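Q: Please design a sequence for this.
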């Protein structure tokens, strides 16, 4: 039996027992016996009973890191959106297992606590990436990175829960739209490629003054001077 097949068999056995007996009443030995395996086999695939329930967060975090690391300053926000989509697609691919996990964690406090701790790891990863992307060591920038990371994770969790409750027929499209809304709240800081390149600044407004009279003032404004 392949490693993946063994993990699936143990997970199926665990969730069946959780449904029958309850989470607290089910032991590792019960799960191993139901799966037709021994304790050694169980611990070869999972560190604890809780680990059977949750996805492989270490692998997901590694995938996110790889996607973020492949971005440049100008594509950083695209990478954030792609990384969030990777996590959502993982849950969608799990199908029924994701729904059963959601039902279980909604009822068992210790599992909710474990889930909250896992969410914090994702938020920390996004915060660190966003702070580096912003390139601003000030406290206000640090707060902005924290707020942005929290918004990113909240958007993902909102869409994921809607899908898990059967309220979303196209969670990927919803996720993309949610991320557009989130990222629109946080304009991108200027990067190295945005400075020192010259270019033309366009200013549009309505006035009753003659254009020739306005041009000197507009030129001073664009060049950073004051308007008199």
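A: Design:
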């Amino acid at each position: 039996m392949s490693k993946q097949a063994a993990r699936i068999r143990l997970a199926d056995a665990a969730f069946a027992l959780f449904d029958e007996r309850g989470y607290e009443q089910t032991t590792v030995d019960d799960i191993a016996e139901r799966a037709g395996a021994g304790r050694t086999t169980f611990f070869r695939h999972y560190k604890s009973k809780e680990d059977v329930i949750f996805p492989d967060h270490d692998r997901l975090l590694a995938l996110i890191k790889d996607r973020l690391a492949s971005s440049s300053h100008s594509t950083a926000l695209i990478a954030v959106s792609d990384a969030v989509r990777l996590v959502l697609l993982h849950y969608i691919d799990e199908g029924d297992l994701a729904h059963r996990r959601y039902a279980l964690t909604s009822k068992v406090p210790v599992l909710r606590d474990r889930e909250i701790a896992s969410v914090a790891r994702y938020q920390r990863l996004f915060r660190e990436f966003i702070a580096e992307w912003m390139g601003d060591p000030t406290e206000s920038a640090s707060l902005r990175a924290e707020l942005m990371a929290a918004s990113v994770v909240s958007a993902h969790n909102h869409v994921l829960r809607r899908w898990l409750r059967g309220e979303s027929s196209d969670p990927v499209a919803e996720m993309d739209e949610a991320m557009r809304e989130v990222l629109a709240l946080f304009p991108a800081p200027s990067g190295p490629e945005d400075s020192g390149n010259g270019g033309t600044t366009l200013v549009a407004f309505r006035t009753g003054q003659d254009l020739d009279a306005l041009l000197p003032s507009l030129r001073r404004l664009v060049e950073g001077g004051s308007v008199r």
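Q: Thanks. Anything notable?
A: The two ends are 81 Å apart (CA to CA). The longest helix spans residues 109-134.
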